[in-house]
Amino acid sequence: xxxxxxxxxxxxxxxxxxxxxxxxxxxxxxxxxxxxxxxxxxxxxxxxxxxxxxxxxxxxxxxxxxxxxxxxxxxxxxxxxxxxxxxxxxxxxxxxxxxxxxxxxxxxxxxxxxxxxxxxxxxxxxxxxxxxxxxxxxxxxxxxxxxxxxxxxxxxxxxxxxxxxxxxxxxxxxxxxxxxxxxxxxxxxxxxxxxxxxxxxxxxxxxxxxxxxxxxxxxxxxxxxxxxxxxxxxxxxxxxxxxxxxxxxxxxxxxxxxxxxxxxxxxxxxxxxxxxxxxxxxxxxxxxxxxxxxxxxxxxxxxxxxxxxxxxxxxxxxxxxxxxxxxxxxxxxxxxxxxxxxxxxxxxxxxxxxxxxxxxxxxxxxxxxxxxxxxxxxxxxxxxxxxxxxxxxxxxxxxxxxxxxxxxxxxxxxxxxxxxxxxxxxxxxxxxxxxxxxxxxxxxxxxxxxxxxxxxxxxxxxxxxxxxxxxxxxxxxxxxxxxxxxxxxxxxxxxxxxxxxxxxxxxxxxxxxxxxxxxxxxxxxxxxxxxxxxxxxx
Length: 538
Description:
single chain, alpha/beta, Rossmann fold, six-stranded parallel β-sheet, 37% helix
């Protein structure tokens, strides 16, 4: 049998796993892998910095439910990528990262850019390994894809020593194995149905991995049948149609106090993949762990249940594995708080005015009322995002791509990835001036690969979230939060795009409509620096 070098074996295996594209910053440590990709129609999205490449791969995994694939070189390349791997671990996103490694024959000699990746990435990812034999390369790749998708998904790192990747071996004969999905027995569902039926103040909370349009529709049907309000966790707002009459909002950062109170007062909470963590429970203040309500938990793995709050009944499986059975076994109930919760959500969406001629609440409300339902919005971290969480409405699953880990710089790489995967849908990157500048070089990646995205940058000349906390804890003592900004309109033109400067609310609609015609567009919102958050100004 003809032998192949490790790079070709790797690329052939990626093709067998159905990989649509890979993201990379090229390095001499994995030239054989680049050579292997040459024989395949798997696009290599060449990025400008490994952190941005990792975020693009993570966004791909988040949108598709299949592993995003990342190639980075050793040493600084791998360490740069750690930001995106951290997001994937927190967000339960499947991702496989291949790291070019020093030759195996030189291990432990402290050679150029040597790092022990098992030790470095071990606490950060689901599994970290180094391939030491070319004839086992396919075995490791198959296991990496399996681990990345199993149970609670997450990132996997495979280090590929240069000499192992270049060595010759017979291609593997076996194909990748089938995935096993969790299943729920009807006997596990019956007591859950009974407990939820008896509740007077129930709440359904959706979150976590393993979600899609089928899960969305079935969860909504369950809320309708039970008369219960249904809410979502942080940055999972597209899990439920925000126009649905039972939708009560999100329990994220800066959540509606009325919804937080409703969680605290609930006598039964059905967790569909969601976790009662510090964000959901306002730093564990909304529910007393010593006196919790009835908690019915559907979690991706057994160890994900009863972390802080003891579940009354729990199953370890994807939500869809029990939703149909739960729905079929549940009788029709009268309203049990859904109407009141919806009214609280509608009241929360009434804009609170902030200072300045350009107001974030006005811009987001305009997008809410005018953007198409299939518009994908990506963002990173910052108080600008609080306006999106509070005032926007996500109607379609897959239109919110954002990090629950609160990582700055995510929005732009994620938007590039989203547009490449969904070329016919409008894609907006919403970013603060500080957030955007962390990965701004990926504008070049967008142009190179034809990702016609719309970048809306909220420019208040500062790290607004930190300034808000600074004013709360050390008022009047400004330190380390002011920013210098480029001319964003000129920057867009430098990248071959179009720039728009919005200095009053009325200008935004025309800028956005022009941006929909195609090409790269940056819309700069000139915000009043006095605005700090949806409810706080200087």
